[in-house]
Amino acid sequence: MGLLSLSDREKQAIRSIDSGVLRDLVDQAITSEHLGGLSKLPLDDCGDYVANKLRHLDSALAAYRIAKSAKKREETLYSAHKAGSDLTFAFGQMKQRLEVEERESQLFVIYEPTMAPLRVAQVMQVRVSYRFRRTIEEEWTSGSIVFKHTSRPRFDFHALAQPKPERKPSARKLAEERESELLREWEHLERLAHWSVRDYFRAGHDGSDIPHEFEVRLGAGGHLNNFSADFWRCNSNA
Question: Are residue 117 and residue 98 in the same domain, yes or no?
Fold first, then answer.
């Protein structure tokens, strides 16, 4: 699964499964105490959310299968039914997500992020590319926006409560830690930037009004928060 959308493999797997058939096979699995026909469905390819629920159901069925006492059978049967319901619900959520993505893709497409840079500097930027159209009859218009951000070192309050190490970390170790911190912050910026453009289009805004660049706004403590990349909330009433 990508940052913004399902992979082609996930889409194909979700399309191939009928929700009614899935519910019937879940009921059969609980009756037979084995996954049975569920194993033949490409549920593992429907994303981690569904795959994890399938594994939970398998474990619940195994517990039900080996239960001996009436009380234990009752408890494990309840757990199996719950795991089965969780699986069908998870699949339903993914099916809805696929429908939303396919509907949205008729009017806008935001391209998935590329590889992270080999090295990340304190002054960083993320480019988000997209295409849009107001109606399905119009031609596509392409564009991009660059999100800019200057990282500030985080003050580690937790470290104050820890005993001081006998040996100070080397300059190389400190540099490596700072580089790792910058990479994590860049990845955070990348997610915020792409989600912000997606949410902008989902809110029905015009792609032609997206600025060419945007200096992210920092939250308390001078660091990124969930709204830092929301360029469209600055001068709009949305």
Answer: no
Is 32 inside any structural domain? yes
pTM of the model: 0.81
**Tens of pLDDT along 50-80?**
999 999 999 999 999 999 999 999 999 999 9
Asked if 177 and 70 sit in the same domain, the reply is no
DSSP per residue over 119-167, as a string?
S--SEEEEEEEEEE-SSTTSPPEEEEEEEEEE--PPP-HHHHTSPPPSS
Q: Quick check: 130 and 208 in contact, CB under 8 A? A: no
Tokens 């569904």 label which residue? 50
Q: Cβ distance 179 to 119 under 8 Å?
A: yes
State both tokens at 11. Answer: 């889409």
Within a domain: residue 47? Answer: yes
With a cut of 90, say whether residue 90 has pLDDT above it.
yes
- Measure Cα distances from 92 to 23, 26, 35 in Å: 11, 14, 19
CA angle 121, 123, 126 (to 5 degrees): 90
